[in-house]
Amino acid sequence: MTSNDLRTKYLNFFKKKGHAIIPSASLIPENDPSVLFTTAGMHPLVPFLLGEKHPAGQRLVNYQKCLRTSDIDEVGDNHHLTFFEMLGNWSLGDLAAPDGIGGAGYWKKEAINWSWEFLTDKKWLNLDPDKFAVSIFAGDEDSPFDQESFAIWKKIGFSENKIAKLDKEENWWPASGHQLGPQGPCTEIFYWTGDKPVPEKFDLKNNYWFEIWNDVFMQYNKIDEYQFVPLKQKNVDTGMGLERTLVALNELNNVYEIDTLRPILDKIIVLSAAKTKNKAMRIIADHLRAAVFIIADGVIPSNVKQGYVLRRLLRRVIRYNKDIGFPKDSLSELVKIVIKTNKEYYPELEKNEKLIINEIEKEENKFNETLEKGLKKIAKFPVGYKITGKDTFALSATFGFPPEMTIEEAKARHLSVNEEKIMKEFKEEFQKHQKLSRTASVGMFKGGLAGQSEIIIKYHTATHLLHAALRQILGDHVEQKGSNITDERLRFDFSHSEKLTSEEIKKVEDLVNKKIKENLPVIYQEMSLVDAQKSGAIGLFANKYGDKVKVYTIKGFSKEICGGPHVVRTGELGNFKITKEEASSAGIRRIKAILQ
Ligand code: ATP
Ligand code: MG
Fold first, then answer.
1. Is the CB of 264 within 6 Å of ligand 1?
2. Alpha-carbon torsion 255, 261, 262, 266, what sign?
3. 80 lines ligand 1 (CB under 6 A)
4. pTM, two decimal places
């Protein structure tokens, strides 16, 4: 079975069950600056999971391109990719039965039974029911055991040996329950991919068990560090991995053998004149495919944000190409395969073919100039040498080595590596350098992604001023709901139910301009999320739990959690003007503004 077959079947199956087909969103989240990439099918749907009405209704289905940089170190194993596709079906509060167990509505019983029907019914995927195992949420001090899912799987015919009861790390989404936002227990479906007979008991640690599908039951909204409140609307959110399911369907044992990845590997073998496939080739195939999709969604290599991730992926490809003797200037051959195998469902690839090839070639040429020298530099460190953040910064600044690459090389050469410390020092060096170059007006980001030019940085800071001014003038109920910046304007969505009067607009404008005139310093600090919240910082907390966060303070006026970068003083912004005020959706207003 091919990727196209599977996508079509999935959409058709759920269409028959009353779902509306919605399109795959961009890999770059449109209104959520808190994460760089779309990491799951549910991600673009968050506002609707929180209760906003979706125009297509309460039952939705789609295929969604996803990217998880957090899985980059797993790439090369049998089942983790950075770029992959998720097939998803949702119930947005489509519950008829008041007990929440299901009935005429769409909750656990429906979701699980439909997953099972799609996987095993002869008309659909026809997979062997005996090769499955599942996991469910065991319960803990905050949240109860998922008795309903347990009962449903048992009724389907699963023995208790094949139902693992696991904690929030495994059976909660988003994992661990630390993150803020909509969430709940999940049940995961595994398929046996080993040659040996299916073991009697399901063991998560055995890698022949492939997790292919996750059915999440969103019952809670986590509103701060301590509070899980029941979600106003209960949702079903499922995600089936396209690549992994194709492994099951075609009786393979790894994702690199499926119809969209195998041709890339085959081509790598031919071009590099190698005889056998290896891990480096898997990494090249995965990263290159990811890069093609990222560029098609409008990102080009740079030193910040998505552009930096793209650069990191491409430079890792170029690095491994050297190991396997892949000829220079041949990556376009691989790009063409990615486009050919995906163009039917992702027309943006073919539309951007020239741009994609061009950007990848540019990056290859650039990095090939320094790759060799950087590797030689690393080779000079004696075995056991304790590599520092300063070393990684020097390698990054001089030879364009992303710090993660230097760490990888250092490990391979048996240098002493303390990853966390190195990355911390690297960031400190980077910040120092950024400050220096900014005062010298040589912006580190110059020449990078258009999205990070000086004007964009100015708009970032103007957004903070606007946010604070709105809260001061309209009230503390104003919260950021989205932000989008181009080099021509800023766009800011915020919670507020009425149209702003022209008087209010004028007041907001005046206050922002007053703060610009005061030429206030923009101060940067790093702290734990808890400290940031205690200090009264506002901003998007989702996805930031556990990490150090950056807090930008505009003296006496604004304090926000934000990734930056920002101008050094507000006086750099010029004149601020609101050009439009309109409704964005129910309870949310949208402002567009320019700097003149
Ligand atoms: P794993 O534990 O194997 O990393 P996960 O629990 O992180 O998976 P989910 O977040 O539940 O996965 O994602 C839903 C589905 O998406 C998974 O069941 C799987 O089929 C697929 N998936 C998740 N991560 C990857 C990946 N890195 N590469 C390919 N498919 C993936
Ligand atoms: Mg994972």
1. no
2. negative
3. yes
4. 0.75
